[in-house]
């Protein structure tokens, strides 16, 4: 298992390298002059010359790539051309938003999708099954951007002034400010160091930070703001997971050993959860892993609609502004998360099904 | 091909005389005939086909049904542009001295109903074109990789792996930026990111069949590699490809609409549902119909293809055949 894990992690390196090269080339293939798109159309030729020299854009692309990779290996992802801030710091500030959103969406998709699928399979052809699968079909067909706007309309317009009203945008309400945990515990940290970035990263995970600082007002406000975007982002994965759970469970429930288990007089709960669900898990885990891509991609749309300062929105803005260092750093981190998730899914096969020998 | 008359079959297996006539009238049940029969029996597929039929009808007859040109800016009696008018339906009590706009007018004063009808054309064209291109390219790549094997297989499939290593939508956004924002480029981007799915399916089929006896027999008879590939092996990849392609059309429509929503796909004045929704998204509080109607239109179209795709998958699944193949 350890050997396989190490081998898979090593195999991920060329994939990430290939991704880096593709992103690097794509970023440079965007038509137009980066100087003009960042400094404006009125930038003079001299200003542009200085600009391209400062950012190393006058060098051949392979040289730029080599410099970038050597810097990256030392933990330097460069500075944003637009904001003139280190990309790593921007990542530390914006990645937590996307992680919170993605995890909330995935948790929602799994917590609702799997029980719905099981119930649907166990009560096959009943009203519950029909309603669940009808809902799943609708859910899988709803565009994220439309559902997001629909939820905003419902919870911020129709249900305004009711207890069910939910905020339509942002991470926190005006006036609610979280205290970073390192300030709360009076931890000394030098700015612009790796430790500072890490502390920033944890402090921007508002849910974790508010638990660490015991600030329940911020926690409640964060969760209220997170709910609508998480529902919007979770709907398609939820529907797909529910459908896969149902079909996988139906296949297992029709097997002889389940009949034997029932004939032995085992309680239904045990037959379903221990005998059927455990064996139906493999395809569910696979499809849930694949949904991570949908969640990371959907984050661009969700963050745009709900004005959330996350990685998705940042990448989109960086592409429009041709902010190369931000595009490269952020896309690489997203790809890293995605590749890591796929690795976790592969490794989980061996835990779920001992017959699978990973070597 | 070896043919046997019903008499010779009877002489070998000694079928009673009264059954010989039945064998003579025996109608072959091809996979496709069985599939169609099973497809028409499924409720979800029936619903999907009816919805799709209506969409195709709308798309084809849009110029005859639409009361206005989708790009025409409508003015009132005083020459003012009718911007974001609420729906006005005479049958539901809207004064007859006002012109009828079933879904109201948009931010540029154009009839929303006409634009929705024309949008069906755009969406269906997007879905079918994108997936046809992706299936064709994916089939060629998958077939070459699977049949040739070796370094060519490695090269092609690692290329596919790199595309798959990106979150689908992010890569599409990056590609559109490289190609330039337009509907055609958005379609090209979605087609490119869709290719690996089809390439993998075709490669898997080719790999599983290239060493089988009937392929060996064709090779021994002197069939060329192309003939073996396209006439002997690839037809076996058709069932999974058809299912994937039908479901893929739904995804392509959804993703192209999402790109248009971000301003990267169809540009004004094209009547594309994603663009219509994106341009009016800030009106969700003041004119929600301008957001809800294009959104519902996209959802219905995607749902129709999803239902049909699900139905096709069940119809083509050999495990779901209940011995009703031969009458």
List keywords for this structure.
heterodimer, A: 359 residues, mainly alpha, 0% strand, globular, B: 327 residues, disordered N terminus
Walkthrough of the structure:
The complex is a heterodimer of chains A (359) and B (327). Chain A is an all-alpha fold. Helices cover 75% and strands 0% of the residues of chain A. Chain A contains 15 helices and no strands. In chain A, α1 packs antiparallel against α15. Chain A is globular, with a radius of gyration of 24 Å. The N and C termini of chain A lie close together (7 Å). Chain B is mostly helical and 327 residues long. Chain B is 67% helix and 0% strand. The chains are: A mainly alpha (359), B mainly alpha (327). The A-B interface holds A 15, 18-19, 22-23, 26-27, 29-31, 137-138, 140-146, 149-150, 152-153, 157, 293-294, 296-298, 300-301, 304-305, 312, 315-316, 319-320, 327, 331, 334-335, 338-339 and B 44, 158, 161-162, 165-170, 173-175, 177-178, 180, 250, 254, 257-258, 261-262, 274, 277-278, 281, 284-285, 288, 291-292, 295, 298-300, 302-303, 306-307, 310.
Brief write-up:
Chain A is mainly alpha-helical and 359 residues long. Chain A has helices at residues 2-29, 34-39, 45-54, 61-73, 87-122, 127-141, 144-158, 181-184, 194-204, 206-212, 216-253, 256-263, 268-305, 311-321, 324-352.
The strand count of chain B comes to 0
Alpha carbon gyration radius of chain A: 24 Å
Radius of gyration of chain B: 26 Å
Low-confidence stretches of chain A: none
| H/E topology pattern of chain A | HHHHHHHHHHHHHHH
Shape of chain B: elongated
List the helices and strands and how they pair.
The complex is a heterodimer of chains A (359) and B (327).
Chain A: H1 2-29, H2 34-39, H3 45-54, H4 61-73, H5 87-122, H6 127-141, H7 144-158, H8 181-184, H9 194-204, H10 206-212, H11 216-253, H12 256-263, H13 268-305, H14 311-321, H15 324-352
Chain B: H1 6-13, H2 17-24, H3 31-41, H4 43-65, H5 112-148, H6 150-165, H7 168-179, H8 183-209, H9 213-220, H10 225-233, H11 238-261, H12 273-279, H13 289-316
Helix pairs in contact in B: 3-13, 4-5, 4-13, 5-6, 5-8, 5-11, 5-13, 6-8, 7-8, 8-11, 9-10, 11-12, 11-13, 12-13
């Amino acid at each position: 298992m350890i050997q396989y894990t190490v081998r898979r992690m090593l195999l991920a390196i060329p994939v990430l390298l290939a991704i880096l090269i593709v992103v690097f080339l794509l970023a440079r293939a965007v038509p137009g002059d980066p100087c003009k798109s960042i400094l404006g159309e009125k930038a003079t030729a001299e200003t542009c010359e200085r600009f391209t020299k400062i950012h190393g854009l006058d060098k051949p692309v392979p040289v730029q790539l080599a410099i970038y990779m050597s810097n990256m290996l030392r933990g330097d992802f460069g500075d944003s051309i637009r904001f003139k801030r280190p990309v790593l710091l921007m990542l530390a500030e914006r990645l937590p938003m996307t992680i919170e959103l993605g995890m909330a969406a995935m948790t929602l998709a799994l917590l609702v999708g799997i029980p719905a699928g099981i119930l649907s399979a166990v009560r096959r052809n009943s009203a519950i099954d029909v309603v669940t699968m009808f809902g799943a079909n609708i859910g899988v067909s709803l565009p994220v951007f439309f559902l997001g706007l629909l939820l905003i309309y419902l919870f911020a317009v129709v249900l305004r002034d009711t207890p069910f009203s939910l905020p339509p945008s942002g991470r926190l309400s005006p006036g609610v400010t979280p205290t970073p945990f390192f300030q709360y515990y009076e931890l000394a940290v030098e700015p612009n160091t790796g430790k500072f970035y890490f502390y920033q990263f944890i402090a921007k995970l508002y849910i974790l930070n508010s638990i660490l600082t015991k600030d329940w007002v911020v926690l409640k406000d964060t969760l209220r703001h997170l709910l609508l975007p998480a529902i919007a982002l979770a709907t398609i994965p939820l529907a797909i997971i529910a459908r896969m759970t149902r079909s996988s469970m139906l296949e297992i429930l029709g097997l002889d050993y389940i009949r034997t288990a029932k004939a032995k007089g085992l309680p239904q709960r045990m037959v379903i959860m221990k005998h059927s669900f455990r064996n139906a898990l493999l395809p569910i885990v696979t499809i849930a892993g694949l949904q991570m891509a949908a969640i990371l991609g959907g984050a661009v749309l969700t963050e745009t609609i709900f004005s959330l300062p996350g990685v998705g929105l940042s990448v989109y803005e960086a592409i429009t502004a041709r902010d190369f260092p931000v595009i490269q750093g952020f896309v690489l981190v997203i790809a890293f998360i995605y590749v890591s998730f796929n690795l976790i899914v592969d490794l989980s096969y061996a835990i779920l099904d001992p017959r699978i020998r990973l070597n | 091909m070896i043919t046997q008359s019903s008499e010779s079959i009877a002489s070998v297996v000694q079928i009673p005389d009264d059954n010989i006539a039945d064998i003579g009238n025996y109608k072959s049940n091809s996979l496709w005939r069985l599939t169609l029969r099973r497809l028409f029996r499924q409720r979800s597929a029936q619903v999907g086909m009816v919805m799709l039929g209506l969409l195709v009808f709308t798309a084809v007859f849009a110029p005859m049904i639409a009361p206005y040109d989708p790009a025409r800016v409508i003015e009132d009696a005083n020459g003012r542009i009718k911007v974001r008018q609420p729906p006005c339906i005479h049958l539901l009590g809207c004064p007859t001295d006002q012109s009828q706009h079933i879904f109201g007018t948009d931010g540029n004063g154009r009839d929303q109903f006409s634009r929705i009808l024309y949008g069906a054309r755009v969406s269906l064209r997007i879905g079918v074109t994108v997936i046809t291109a992706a299936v064709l390219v994916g089939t060629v790549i998958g077939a070459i990789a699977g049949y040739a094997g070796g370094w060519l297989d490695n090269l092609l499939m690692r290329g596919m792996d790199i595309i798959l290593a990106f979150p689908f939508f992010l890569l599409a956004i990056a590609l559109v930026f490289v190609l330039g924002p337009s509907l055609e480029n958005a379609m090209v981007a979605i087609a490119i990111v869709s290719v690996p799915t089809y390439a993998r399916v075709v490669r898997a089929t080719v790999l599983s069949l290239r060493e089988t006896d009937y392929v060996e027999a064709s090779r021994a008879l002197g069939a060329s590699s192309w003939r073996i590939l396209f006439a002997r092996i690839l037809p076996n990849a058709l069932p999974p490809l058809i299912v994937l392609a039908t479901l893929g059309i739904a995804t392509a429509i959804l993703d192209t609409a999402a790109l248009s929503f971000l301003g990267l796909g169809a540009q004004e004045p094209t009547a594309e549902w994603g663009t219509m929704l994106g341009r009016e998204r800030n009106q969700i509080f003041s004119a929600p119909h301008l957001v809800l109607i294009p959104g519902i239109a996209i959802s219905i179209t995607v749902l129709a293809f999803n239902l049909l795709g699900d139905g096709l998958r069940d119809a083509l699944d050999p495990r779901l055949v209940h011995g009703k193949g031969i009458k």
